[in-house]
Write a structure and sequence with these properties.
It contains six helices and six strands, in the order αββββαββαααα. With 155 residues, the chain is an alpha+beta fold. Helix 5 packs across helix 6. Bound molecules: zinc ion. InterPro entries: His-Me_finger_sf (IPR044925).
Length: 155
């Protein structure tokens, strides 16, 4: 099936597409487009386009389907962390599970609530620390430490 770009004339998207295609280093028989793991999160390709830093699969979604609807997250049907194949991507309303999972007994160990994926999303996000803290059910300082690479750093 031919994949049609959302808007091939958009300069930002075509730039993003070039970057994305450079990151893709393998296509599987099941249709996955695999990107090289980058950055601290390892499994997730990340892409900087102009000053917009985001996960590679989110860029792929924008390139082929258009803007990600507000409050939605982009998932993969193939459940492969580093796949950016547009045919495998779909956006779904983010479930408030992080807030449901918020457990007062764990407030002293906020790190336990984050995952490498959420850390990558936090670092890629342009939201405020406060907004992200609420979204992920952690303290604002936790978000700040993640963003400044004081925590969740691989050595
Ligand atoms: Zn895939």
């Amino acid at each position: 099936m031919d994949i049609v770009e959302f808007d091939p004339t958009d300069p930002l998207l075509s730039k993003a597409r070039n970057r994305l295609m450079h990151l893709v280093n393998r296509r599987t028989p099941t249709g996955c487009w695999l990107v090289k793991p980058t950055g601290a999160s390892r499994a997730y390709g990340r892409l900087m386009v102009n000053r917009d830093y985001d996960l590679a699969h989110r860029w792929s979604y924008r390139i082929y389907f258009g803007p990600i609807p507000a409050g939605h997250r982009v998932f993969r049907t193939c459940r492969t962390d580093n796949c950016v194949a547009p045919e495998h991507l779909y956006a779904r309303k983010a479930e408030p599970r992080t807030r449901v999972a918020f457990d007062r007994r764990r407030t002293n160990r906020p790190r336990a609530k984050l995952t490498w994926e959420s850390v990558a999303l936090i670092r890629a996000s342009t939201n405020t620390d406060t907004a992200l803290a609420e979204e992920y059910g952690v303290h604002r300082v936790t978000i700040r430490d993640v963003r400044s690479f004081k925590s969740w750093v691989t050595r």
